[in-house]
Recover the amino acids of this structure.
C-alpha cells in the first residue's frame, strides 16, 4: 500500500485511482496547460484536485 503524498510526488497517470487524505476516491483525468490537475469523483463529476493536499494511489479494480 502506498503512502500519502503530494500530486507532484505521485506523478499520477490518466485513469489511475487516487484517494484523498479524507477518504474520497477519484480517477485521475490529467492536467491542463496551467498545471491544474483534474479527477472524476465516484459521483461522476469532474473535480479540480488540489496539489497542496495529500493523496495516495489506490489499486485498480
Amino acid at each position: 500500500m502506498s503512502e500519502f503524498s503530494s500530486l507532484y510526488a505521485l506523478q499520477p497517470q490518466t485513469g489511475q485511482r487516487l484517494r484523498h487524505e479524507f477518504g474520497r476516491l477519484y480517477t485521475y483525468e490529467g492536467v491542463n496547460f496551467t498545471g491544474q490537475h483534474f479527477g472524476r469523483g465516484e459521483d461522476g463529476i469532474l473535480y479540480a484536485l488540489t496539489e497542496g493536499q495529500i493523496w495516495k494511489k489506490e489499486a485498480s479494480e
